[in-house]
Amino acid sequence: NIGYESRAAVYVDGVYAGRSLAVNQDLLDLERVEVLRGPQGTLFGKNTVSGAINLTTRKPHGKYQGKFVVETGNYNYLHTRAIVNVPLVQNRLFAKVSAKKVNRDGFITNLFNGKNQNGRDAFGARLQLRYLVSESTEFNLSLNGLRDRADPGVFAIAITGPGFDLAPDPRQVKHDANEFNSRDLFSGTLSVERNFPGGYALRSMSSYHVNESKMLQDLDHTDEFVAIAQGTDQDRHFTQEVRWTSPLT
User: How confident is the model at residue 152 (pLDDT cuts 50, 70, 90)?
Assistant: First the structure.
């Protein structure tokens, strides 16, 4: 719900994802997932009332590497993923490109207009650059984008009342509203890390996020214009964090 703030914050490579519409996104080539229960305000800020989920992606490295995966299924489901890692300058500059495309036909028929609804059409990509200035200093740049469409999308199925009488089959509805759900996400992050003798480290993380979500939902579940819900969530935010860490002992 666009009116709610999440009590468990999601971080991608240490950067706060922000609004809830940006949390559920296609992530590729993850290195690890950390689930921290309970308030995490000391390390992750005020947004972590009930906990934090920290997602860490694999950094570009000095070897040529590629991966391509294709998955298929019913309703013309097609899911493709591609990851390419390329060293640009030996032992100095590395790049990685990750992309994901998902398509699926709708599986719920709207008897009002004959359309098959709840299809999926999403594309996400990430570009990562890693520059090793020296053995103790490195720069990491990440650019991420996602275009997600469920157009049109059925948000709920009637289980009783007039809506159920019009379409009792669980794979059918009779909605007059042109329901849809769309998201467009973009983020850019630059991190600078410097290690010092004795196990000390200094890290700066700068990020900028642009998120937009639009939806329209038929609330009465009938073919009459009675009630709809329509919402737009737009968010732009910049974050800057400087972290100094010391050794455990």
Answer: low
